[in-house]
Design goal:
binds zinc ion; 82 residues; mainly beta; 3-stranded antiparallel beta sheet
């Protein structure tokens, strides 16, 4: 398990909002972002490229567009741009 001290400082690498445990994963608490990061051993993999990036509108996996710092949903077109 991750220590409370570690959880207190973990933020989403995309939007910098606090991340919290959600089952076996860490989930961003920003309702527009919702990215989930898996934990391997005791190490959270805080990489947006490797994250589950569910669309808040339709639940589809969003694409991460690196050059534009944007999450784009291929299904419904919702975008989250930083
Ligand atoms: Zn986030
Ligand atoms: Zn969508």
């Amino acid at each position: 398990m991750l220590s409370k001290e570690m959880l207190d400082i973990l933020v989403c690498p995309f939007c910098k909002t606090a991340a919290r445990m959600a089952g076996e994963k860490l989930a961003c608490t920003n309702p527009q972002c919702l990215c989930e990061y898996r934990i391997e051993g005791d190490i959270p993999i805080m990489l947006i490229d490797e994250a589950k990036r569910p669309c808040p509108q339709c639940g589809s996996q969003r694409d991460y567009i690196n050059e534009e710092d944007t999450l784009h949903c291929p299904k419904c077109g919702t975008e989250l741009k930083l």
